[in-house]
Amino acid sequence: MIDVTGLPVAAGGAVTVRVPAKVNVRLAVGPPRADGFHDLVNVFHAVSLYDDVTAAEPVEPGAYSVRVTGLSADQVPLDGGNLAVRAARALAAHAGRAYGADLQIRKAIPVAGGMAGGSADAAGALVACNELWGLGLTREELMEIGGDIGSDVPFALLGGTAVGTGRGERLAPAEVGGRFHWVFALAEGGLSTAEVYATCDRLRAEAGVTAGPPRANAALMEALRAGDAAALGRELANDLQPAALALMPGLAGVLAAGRERGALGAIVSGSGPTCAFLTGSAAEAAALAAGLEAAGVCRAALTAYGDVPGAAVVAAAP
């Protein structure tokens, strides 16, 4: 039997789930908490770059394996550190059964790029294994399990646009009044999320800045509701951006190149290093992507739109 990724899968059934990337249109970061995390106000926006995660019955009962193809597949861990494997194991533990799964991931979301590719794969594994094993858990129940795996996993399950608080795992859906068109400039190499947060704390300490509680942005939320790309572009903000630029100074030139070529807004996505540019239309996004690639300021430039739904089954074989 062959699944939609074109890779052979074990006989006995397979489920393929498509799950989107995210961009943070607002990421407000509070001071470090006692548990090492930070309180956030994180406005997630799901975009049309997708990983496909297939879960199949394992050849060896109770075993877990993972194979990865696609964008930067060689950078994805294939051991117990893989978030999709961790998610499948966590789901089996929740069910109290000795399940197993052969997982196959086809990547189009940048790895270590600030677009929650690993969290997307975990979300995809939760949905796929829930279907494969016939558990019948609700999306809310899967989000509860996913929150223990990673702060961004619940949003990858939910999709759309949402305001995340706490570590980002507590979500409130947000109203969006239209489609937004994006360009994502991929950098050479990645950034460690933990290192970016640590650098954010260090830069604040060196500047004598005491971070207060993170706050929402009313103007940004209104721009989303109105579907106003120009207004949203003016309000894009990421408290982690100075840290990402300190760790990878070349990103400043990428952001400037996008602005010079007509982007309505430019921002480092999440912990970076992917740079996100908001445009007014699909045609403008295509032109900007071509311009960034021609300028040689990034490894590649991808176009996408948002918002889009969260993790969803796209193929199943009995």
UniProtKB/TrEMBL annotation:
InterPro entries: GHMP_kinase_C_dom, GHMP_kinase_C_sf, GHMP_kinase_N_dom, IspE, Ribosomal_Su5_D2-typ_SF, Ribsml_uS5_D2-typ_fold_subgr. Keywords: ATP-binding, Isoprene biosynthesis, Kinase, Nucleotide-binding, Transferase. The keyword ATP-binding applies. It comes from the Bacteria. It is an enzyme of class 2 (transferase). One of its GO terms (biological process) is terpenoid biosynthetic process. Coiled coil: none annotated. ATP binds at residues 110-120. It catalyses: 4-CDP-2-C-methyl-D-erythritol + ATP = 4-CDP-2-C-methyl-D-erythritol 2-phosphate + ADP + H(+). Catalyzes the phosphorylation of the position 2 hydroxy group of 4-diphosphocytidyl-2C-methyl-D-erythritol. This is 4-diphosphocytidyl-2-C-methyl-D-erythritol kinase. The lineage of its organism: Bacteria, Bacillati, Actinomycetota, Actinomycetes, Streptosporangiales. The gene is ispE.
